[in-house]
Amino acid sequence: MKNTVLLGALTVAGLAAGAAGAATLDDVKARGTLNCGVSTGLTGFSAPDANGVWQGFDVAVCRAVAAAVLGDPMAVNFVPTTGQTRFTALASGEIDILARNTTWTFSRDVDLKFEFTGVNYYDGQGFMVPKALGVSSAKELDGATVCIQTGTTTELNLADFFRVNNISYEPVPIETNAEAQQQYLASACDVYTTDASGLAATRASFEAPSDHIILPEIISKEPLGPLVRHGDSEWGDVVRWSFNALVAAEEYGVTSANIEELASSPGDNPEINRLLGTEGELGAMLGLDADFAKKAIMANGNYGEIFEKTIGEKTPIGLSRGLNAQWTEGGLMYSPPFR
Amino acid sequence: MTTMTDPPGQGFRLSQLIYDTRYRSLTIQMVAMILLMLTFSWLVVNTITNLHALGKDFDFGFLTQPSGYDINQRLVEYDSQSTHGRAALVGILNTLLVAFLGCALATVLGVTAGVLRLSNNWLVSRLMAVYVEGFRNVPLLLWIVLIFALMTEGTPAPSAFRGETPSSSMLFDAVAITNRGVYIPAIHFAAPLFENNFYNWLLVLIVLAVSIFVVKRIAHWASVRQEATGDRPTTWYLTLAILVLPIALLLVLMGAFLDLPSLQGFNFGGGVHLRGSLIALWLALSLYTGAFIAEIVRGGILAISAGQSEAAYALGLRPGTTMKLVVLPQALRVIIPPLISQFLNLTKNSSLAIAVGYMDARSTLGGITINQTGRELEGMLLLGLFYLVLSLAISGVMNVYNNSVKLKER
Asked: What is the pLDDT of residue B33?
């Protein structure tokens, strides 16, 4: 008798647990907000501005997805995560999407069971040192004390780089970018290493950015992109194509300035028509409105506009497009066709 | 003739389970037990189901995979090609190190502050009150971060020691205090007896322990002698010789020399590097727990009847001797049980190490390893198991000590 009750309860519990893993898209629509994991503060990529509104390159991805799904780019609940907490937050369902300059690697994709939905920034790991140190190459860093953000791929690349070059170093593990910055500026470490874009962003927030140089060596490939949980391909598609819409929009010259006009009636370019939903049923296939891509683009502009606004050459961070230019201009940004 | 008959036997009714006091408590216990088991099994099943939904399994195989990351403070050999299990071991040893250092310093601080807080000197007792209340009532994490910040911001960088006219200089040319930690001289052996340095130090420790044991025996012999004859034989030269000679001989034999820290490249080289993270964590844990121990010690002393000290004074003992020989030994019986729980607290609080980047078990096994392998559940279970075993071991050892000092009733 007791056993039967127990087994019955187990079954009920099992069913309840199974039901909890419903489709993310429905959850987000029902909730009315998108839970988006971002960094704890990296100028240009994700950081709150003076009014407490999150701004940045990664934030823009979240806003585009929120606009595509919910029609409101501001309906995002930003969850700051550290290098150590981000994957747990995503796996546990605390966040729907992680846009936190996270490197796409084999083991994260396959073993950690995540799905990378694209690359929004092609990066590589670099080193920043004070000019006064008189170092011009990373290979001269034998015996240096290096600040690293713990729980990142940089930690592993660093170990590989120093081992392969047969030089020694003293790692100082640090939880967040802000703490690393403070340690570095107090010269508790000689070198700060992270993705080159992150270094540029960090240096831009220094009082005297010109006192610090970024060494020429880029020691790794760091394709950064938004990711979602494995096993919910519909949601993965929504995020992937919301982002692709931004990239495609730049390629076809759709900007926040001319999008209203282009979307008002079908034009000459069928690709733009399909993208903006004036032709075809692409939105419905995703379970979204026909003009989902239009909403996503209107949130912050196309990929190029977002880049220029947040981290481009006119901003204090001053990153050039480089690898992140459109494929038509020698870069790697390439959206599969909207068809 | 009368016969005693049982009351007419009534069949067992279900309502008796609730209304009959003979069964009620049993019923309640059974219901509570079933509910508890249901909750527990729901948790387990829920975990299994959700792990399955995520496509994850439950596997400790990651412990044998190469870790790929470096650890700055390692008490055993380790590099980025070692396994995650080895990394966990390095972290565990670091936890043990800071817990041991912390417990030792906290005890010294606590006993001192506890005794001094009862001092008749107004200034001393108030100062101790400020220490106790200040540290007891501010969260530990703040103290850890504060001490670490003071070290990084308030001490010079190694580059300040460089150049013709350096702005900082080493203490006695032997100790360098920098914002990356403190460099102190190390003892090295030019002609070690064993390949593995660990055994050399073990040998030194064994020789020291034997010397101390012999000295104790001599003191005991002197006391026996004093009681028998009334004369205490002079033993100090013997004691000194036994303490110093064997260890000096061993050190000379192994060619011990001092390795002074000196500027090498970006950092100081040579000597022993006590990292800022270790010092900050150690000091903060000791000061914080010391404040609690001070109150326990004060309570223990106050629990001893004043008649004990008065009797000691009447015998002509000085206050210091009275405290040492009469009051503290008795107070220990009251002090030790709560002291055990303070040691346990300190050990578990050492898991705040990540705040200053100290690579303890929480930072290696429970931090980077989990993050790189995605084995949250396995890692956290292992970590919990480690702290459980460590805590039980500490309280086991302390209970043995407690049994040795507690009141022996004959």
From this structure: 95
CB pairs under 8 A between A and B: 136
Instruction: Go through the domains of chain A in sequence order and give each one's CATH number.
Output: 23-122+224-329 (3.40.190.10), 125-220 (3.40.190.10)
The verdict on a CB contact (< 8 Å) between B41 and A13 is yes
Q: Which residues of A touch B374 (CB under 8 A)?
A: 87, 91, 111-113
Helix and strand counts by DSSP (H, E) for chain B: 14, 7
A171·B70 Cβ contact <8 A = yes
Tokens 């950064």, residue located: A224
With H, G, I as helix, E, B as strand and everything else as coil, classify residue A333: strand
Domain boundaries, chain B: 186-259
Burial class (CB in 10 A: 0-12, 13-18, 19+), A163: middle
pLDDT higher than 80, residue A246: yes
Measured distance CA(B188)–CA(B330) in Å, rounded:
43
In percent, the amount of chain A with pLDDT more than 90 equals 45
Task: Please answer yes or no on whether A151 and B368 come within 8 Å at the CB atom.
Answer: yes
Is the pLDDT at B201 greater than 60? The verdict is yes
Using the predicted structure, report yes or no on whether residue B197 has a pLDDT greater than 70.
yes
Mutation choice for A interface testing from B62, B371, B376, B378 by most A CBs within 10 A: B371
C-alpha–C-alpha distance, residues A248 and A297, integer Å: 10
Q: Give the pLDDT of residue B4.
A: 60
Q: Which of B37, B179, B374 sits opposite A112 (nearest CB)?
A: B374
Answer yes or no: do B266 and A141 touch at CB < 8 A. Answer: yes
| Percent of chain B with pLDDT strictly greater than 70 | 97
Q: What rounded mean pLDDT belongs to chain B?
A: 87
User: Left if phi > 0, otherwise alpha if psi is -120 to 50, otherwise beta: which for A129?
Assistant: beta
Q: How far is A152 from chain B (nearest CA, A)?
A: 8
